[in-house]
Amino acid sequence: MLHTQRQISIQIRMAGGNYLWVVKGNKPQLLEDLHDWFDTPIPLLPGMGCPPKDFRSTTVTNKGHGHIEVRTLTTSNQLNDFLDWPFLQHVFKLERSVTVQKTKQTRQEIPYGITSLSAKQASPKQLLEMLRSYWGMENGLHYRRHVTLHEDETRFTKDSAAHIMSIINNIILGLIAKTDYQFVPSDGRYFAANLQDAFNLLAQL
Question: pTM of the entire structure?
């Protein structure tokens, strides 16, 4: 995630807020440390046992739109003093699988993350809800803008043109939120064939 940066984390906490970051490839050492903690078994040495870990987990299953999604979030605060990250209180691993009921095909992903929220401030269930809310925004806004409305494919030679197009796309998504479809391609097809309804919707601005 682009915003998983030390300085931004410090600024957020100094302003009284909390961060919840998903760690990706731009922080390779941090990502490796999280992977090792959650996934690599500690070898047993003669006369020594494996130190216990404070893992806490929650699992949520959702069904809808022909999919079954299972999420398991596991947290730990034993790395707070080991990892060199400002205001760290929690680390987590999210195991997410989505199965298409019709084809039985399953897609899996395992992101890791960090947060300044303590175990008392946010349980595994609460952290999972926060992450789901973020991804809902990602899918509902950023995906629509970058993929459905083709912002990523647009090339402008003037910054003002890109800014204007961004405003137009924001207006489009705001208008779609007022309709019953809530699906950009369906709305586009409908209003292209029903111009009067499109003008009526614009009149609500």
Answer: 0.64
